[in-house]
Amino acid sequence: MDVIELFKHLISTKSETPDDGGLLDFIEEYLTGFEAVRIDVEDVKNLFIYKKFREGEHLCFAGHVDVVPAGSGWDTDPYTAVEKDGFIYGRGAQDMKGGLAAFMQAVKEAKNFNGTLSLMLTSDEEGEAVNGTVKILEFLENNDLLPNAVVVAEPTCEDRLGDAIKVGRRGSINGYVTLKGKQGHAAYPEKAINPIHNISKILGSMAGVDLDNGDEFFAPSKFVVTDIRSGMQVTNVTPNELKMMFNVRNNTKTTQKEVAEFVAKHFAGLDYELRLTQGSYPFKTDTNTKLVIMVDSAIEKVTNAKPQHSTAGGTSDARFMAPLGVEVVEFGVRNDSIHSVNERTTRGEVEDLHKIFKVLIKDWK
Hints:
Blueprint: H1 3-11, H2 23-30, E1 35-38, E2 46-52, E3 57-64, E4 82-84, E5 87-89, H3 93-109, E6 115-122, H4 133-142, E7 149-152, E8 164-166, E9 168-169, E10 172-180, E11 184-185, H5 195-200, E12 223-230, E13 237-238, E14 241-248, H6 256-266, E15 272-280, E16 283-284, H7 290-303, E17 308-310, H8 318-321, E18 327-330, E19 344-345, H9 347-363
Parallel strand pairs: 3-6, 3-7, 7-18, 8-17
Antiparallel strand pairs: 1-2, 2-6, 4-5, 5-19, 9-16, 10-14, 10-15, 11-13, 12-14
Helix pairs in contact: 1-3, 3-9, 7-9
C-alpha cells in the first residue's frame, strides 16, 4: 500500500470508541519487523509497537484509532473513504486517521534510524481516556521504555498544512457550585432567601472574566459559566437552592487554588458549597528543544511554511506524556471538519504529512 491506500483502508474500518475495529491487529501485521506489545484493558485496545535500529534516542509517534460516532446527514457513507472534489471524505479523515496513516507509512518505510522508532496507539482517546494512553505509559515507565520525544498526530493546522503545531495545551478545571437559599412564597420575598436574586448580583462580575493575563503561548484562563438551574418551574415559589456549573480552561498561571479564591471572593457572605475537579493539567514543551526545532525544520522543508507554536484548542493524550518528562508536540492535518458531518481532508495534506514525518525520521540525530 502507499499512504493514500492505507489512509482509505483506515477510514473504511469502523472503529467507534472504544472499538478498534481490528485496526490494532492490522497495524501489527502491517509493521513487519517491529516488536508489538498489547496492553488491552477491559474493552479498550492498546498497542505499543517498536523497533530498535541501534543505540540512541527513542522517537515515538502517538495517536488513536478510535473515532466519534458518525451521526446522520452525511452525503456519503461515513465508513467508506470517498474521494471527490479534491477531498477524501469519511469519519476520522482529520481526527485522526490522516495522521495515523502518515506516520504508519513513514515508520514502515524507515530503513535506518539513530535509535528506536515506535508507535503508541489506543482505542480510547475519544472516550473517557482512562484505560488508554495512560495505561500504555504506565507499562512503558515500569519497563524503562519511555520515549525521549513524541509526536502526536492530532489535526493542528488552521488554513494550510504546516501553519501550526501544538507545543502545549491548557488544562481543564470543572466547577460545581450549590448556592443555598430559603424557599418561600413569591408574595412574601422578605420571608425567603432567593438564591437567584443573590447570584444575579454577582454573576456579571464572574461570567466570562479572565482570571489571568495569559502569555505569549497561552490565552488567559477564562471563567465560563456552562449551566445554571434552580426553581420548581412554578411562578409562586422561590427556590431553596441554585446549582451552577462552570469550566476554566486554565494555563500555567491559574490553578484550582486561584479558582476557589475567585469564587470565594464573589460569594462572600453567601451560603454555598464548591466542588472542583480537574480532568487535565496545562503543559508546554520548551520551543528550544530538539523535538520542536526538528519538527519545525521538517515542516519547512516540505511545505515552505514556518509553523506557529500554539496551545489553543481542547485536550489530547499529550497531556499524559508531558508530566513524565517526555518532550511532546502535536502536528497533523487541518482541523476544520473534525467531529462534524462530512468530515474530510485532502490527498495532498496526507501525502505531505507523510513526507514531513519521513524527513523528521531521516534527519533525527
